[in-house]
């Protein structure tokens, strides 16, 4: 199992966190999503989850990955 950490910009509330968790959680291979609203940190765990698909899911939720 691997863990990938992203910094997501634009999240301002609990609904934002829920949206990111829901979208990223649907990516094949993802088994867990932890979001820290204050820092914008999103930790994604899973069995070789696809980075491109995770970034697309974050964008689909309405947010951007910094960097």
Give an overview of the whole structure.
With 67 residues, the protein is α+β, with helices and mostly antiparallel strands. The protein has two helices and four strands; from the N terminus they run E-H-E-E-H-E. Strands 2-3-1-4 form a four-stranded antiparallel sheet, covered by helices on one side. Strand 2 (30-36) and strand 3 form a beta hairpin. The relative contact order is 0.33.
Q: Could you give the topology of this structure?
A:
Blueprint: E1 2-9, H1 14-25, E2 30-36, E3 41-46, H2 51-60, E4 64-65
Antiparallel strand pairs: 1-3, 1-4, 2-3
Which structural class do the helices and strands define? Answer: alpha+beta
**What helical percentage do the residues reach?**
25-40%
DSSP summary: helix tally: 2
Q: Averaging pLDDT over every residue, what do you get?
A: 96
Strands of the biggest beta sheet: in what spatial order?
2-3-1-4
Q: Shape, please? A: globular
In terms of DSSP E residues, the strand content is 25-35%
Largest beta-sheet details: 4 strands, antiparallel
Radius of gyration: 10 Å
Number of strands: 4
Runs with pLDDT <50, length 5+?
none
H/E element sequence: EHEEHE
Separation, N- and C-terminal Cα atoms: 24 Å
As an assembly, this protein is single chain
């Amino acid at each position: 199992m691997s863990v990938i950490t992203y910094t997501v910009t634009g999240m301002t509330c609990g609904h934002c966190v829920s949206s990111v968790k829901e979208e990223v959680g649907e990516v094949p291979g993802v088994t867990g999503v932890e979001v820290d609203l204050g820092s914008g940190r999103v930790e994604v765990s899973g069995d070789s989850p696809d980075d491109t698909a995770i970034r697309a899911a974050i964008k689909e939720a309405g947010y951007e990955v910094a960097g």
